């Protein structure tokens, strides 16, 4: 039982450190390979003309980002 508790505590410490790192850097956790950006792909859907569903989602994201930028305190 003590091994389980020690493992749980260590795991929670790592989660705490990762969350503090996110709050300080304002940067999402990403893989070591760099993801799709390394390949020159700006988005997961790399089509020239996105479908209507993708266009609506992109519009919502843009609207949300504008609201966040407008209401940002810092």
Describe what this molecule looks like in 3D.
This protein has one domain (2-30, 46-70). The protein is built from two helices and no strands. It starts with a helix and ends with a helix. It is mainly alpha-helical and 74 residues long. The protein is elongated. The chain has helices at 2-25, 52-70.
Order of helices and strands: HH
Q: What would you report as the Rg, rounded to the nearest angstrom?
A: 19 Å
> What is the mean predicted local confidence, pLDDT?
81
- SSE class: mainly alpha
Portion in strands: under 5%
What are the segments in which pLDDT stays under 50 over at least 5 consecutive residues? none
Termini Cα gap: 45 Å
What characteristic shape results from the CA principal axes? Answer: elongated
Number of helices: 2
Approximate helicity band: 55-70%
Largest sheet: none
How many E-type strands?
0
What's the domain count? 1
Task: Describe how the helices and strands are arranged.
Layout: H1 2-25, H2 52-70
Summary tags:
elongated; 74 residues; mainly alpha; single chain; 2 helices
Give me a quick take on this structure.
The chain has 74 residues and is an all-alpha fold.
């Amino acid at each position: 039982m003590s091994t389980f508790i020690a493992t749980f505590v260590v795991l929670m410490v790592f989660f705490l450190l990762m969350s503090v790192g996110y709050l300080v850097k304002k940067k999402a956790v990403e893989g070591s390979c760099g993801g799709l950006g390394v390949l020159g792909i700006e988005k997961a859907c790399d089509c020239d003309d996105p479908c209507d569903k993708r266009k609506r989602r992109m519009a919502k994201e843009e609207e949300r980002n504008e609201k966040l930028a407008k209401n940002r305190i810092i």
